[in-house]
Amino acid sequence: MDSYKLLITGGIPLVGETYVSGGKNTSVAVISATLLCDEPCVLENLPDIEDVHVLIDILTGLGAKVDYQPEAKRMTVDPRNVNTFRVPYRQTQRMRASYYMLGALLGRFGQAEVGYPGGCSIGARPVDQHLKAFRAIGAEVKDRGAKITAKGKMVGGSVVFDRITVGGTINAMLAAARAEGNTTLYNAAREPHVVDLANFLNSMGCRVKGAGTDTIRITGAKKLHGSVYTVIPDQIETGTLMIAAAATRGDVVIRGCIPTHMESLTAKLLEMGVAVSDMDDAIRVRTVRGHRAVNIKTQEYPGFPTDLQQPMSAMLTRASGDSVVIETIFESRFKHLMEMRRMGAQVQILDQTAIIQGVPELYGAPVTATDLRAGAALVIAGLMANGVTEIYEPGYIERGYEHIEEKLRALGADIRREPLEDI
Ligand code: EPU
Q1: Whose C-alpha lies nearest to ligand 1, atom 19?
Q2: Which among 32, 36, 31 is positioned nearest to 223, based on CA atoms?
Q3: Catalytic residue annotation
Q4: Mutate which of 27, 96, 135, 397 to test ligand 1's pocket (most atoms within 8 Å of Cβ)?
Q5: Is residue 247 predicted with pLDDT exceeding 90?
Q6: Do 278 and 368 share a structural domain?
Q7: Whether residue 55 has its Cβ less than 6 Å from ligand 1
Q8: What's the domain count of the chain?
Q9: What is the mean pLDDT of residues 293-316?
Q10: Which structural domain, as residue segments, surrounds residue 160?
Q11: In what order do the strands lie in the sheet with 111-115?
Q12: Atom of ligand 1 at shortest range from CA of 191
């Protein structure tokens, strides 16, 4: 249980300029990939978030030397002294991306023994496609419930994913990066962070082609040399800030983002009547009139991202008309809407569909975050609501948003922490 709660006094339009931090889901992939290297690597633009700290603990536990300077957003990882291929469950259950240790250690040693991953509870989240890929590339894999063991010479192979998986695609790329032969991944994920990992691997001397399409070809390298690499800005943080600006009827310029990564969200915001203008590396979002209801169906990139469904559906609770939101990626991603009923939201949930009947007003209430993006959605709900919203378990938000409270305060939001007295 977190030792503090967030208090938000809503109803204030966000106005001004803000910036986007480095991508969470790209950072966790790229940091894991440093284990494959024969020399130290320097990573830049890393966000100072909980998931990065957990990975540092895991890498250090493996014997890597990690020098992290959060103010400079820079990390140097020297993997030369990594002396074990085991990562215990007590570490892996702290985050989802700990599953990248499987691909990275298999790629480096041809052997991995890794506890089951933890992470946000948003559905069943099996890893069968990751294991299928490791087998195709050369490993013998045993899934023992609490831990996964994998061993074998990485020789490369063909993988046809039964469904599109971001984690499975990235893990297969890690396992294949030093394989003796070639690997082809079919039905691969096309997310920007898959492309970012490919660029990082290529900068170390690997040959990855086709990232960003559904077919990725990897020619393994015998040795990988050190690299200095800057991770891309966070697409989901950008989207969350865009939604926060629109939801509060504000006017915000978000700097340091990649507007082309945001097209599915931008299209929906325009459909709602929000004004969105793209610049080279910035987006301005402002609301000039009331919001129309829209329908959303989450899909793999370049479709509407599941990670923005929660903040977006929070905003739709106050749009004019009925919105239908269909969540196709995870089974359990509407918990924030159930919490928001206490704030006056009118929502019906039927399996993976939410029907949201827009209301003119939300009011502050105590609510509890159940996962990272649910936390972000509740912050947006609090910013929109009249009165004071109390958010319990806000620690989830720290897993993935760097300095989010400071960023929102700089735009005029009234958001603060208060210690819990009764714990
Ligand atoms: N799936 C399988 N078998 C597998 C792998 C996935 O059935 O072997 C299913 C999942 O259960 C899910 C779907 O396939 O229904 C897609 O899962 P995917 O593997 O793409 O998701 P992930 O790798 O577990 C990453 C992000 C998530 C993001 C999803 C989808 C990281 C560390 N996590 O998860 O991010 O929602 O891709 O884009 O990169 C978040 O940032 O809040 C977050 C949850």
Answers
A1: 165
A2: 36
A3: 120
A4: 96
A5: yes
A6: yes
A7: no
A8: 2
A9: 98
A10: 24-230
A11: 86-87, 111-115, 147-151, 140-143
A12: 38
